[in-house]
Amino acid sequence: MMKTAQAAEEQLEKEKVAFEKLKQSERWAASAGLELVRSLAKLLFDERKLWKEACARENEKLFRVLQEVNNLKAANATLV
């Protein structure tokens, strides 16, 4: 009876250790997943910021071109 109780205790201790290892690995996996999500969110934020800046530059350039076209149309109208 003592050997069975001792064997059961040892088995229980082994299972506790295995459970703690699993729990720790799950925490690490969750932490790594959260870190991945955060880094992807930052990359998306940076990409969106660069995209907005590029669009603003392009819009400014196109606005200047439109102004030049309108000025040329007006100059052409005065010549005709």
Commentary on this structure:
- This protein is mainly α.
- 98% of the residues lie in helices and 0% in strands.
- It is built from one helix and no strands.
- The N and C termini lie far apart (116 Å).
Task: Please report which band the strand proportion falls in: under 5%, 5-15%, 15-25%, 25-35%, 35-45% or over 45%.
Answer: under 5%
Low-confidence stretches: none
The oligomeric state is single chain
Mean pLDDT: 89
Helix fraction bin? over 70%
Which structural class do the helices and strands define? mainly alpha
Main pleated-sheet profile: none
Number of strands: 0
Radius of gyration: 34 Å
Determine the number of helices (DSSP H or I, runs of at least 4 residues): 1
The helix-strand sequence is H
Q: How far is the first residue's CA from the last residue's CA?
A: 116 Å
Task: Outline the fold blueprint.
Layout: H1 2-79
Summarize the structure.
This protein has 80 residues and is mostly helical. Helices cover 98% and strands 0% of the residues.
Notable traits:
80 residues; mainly alpha
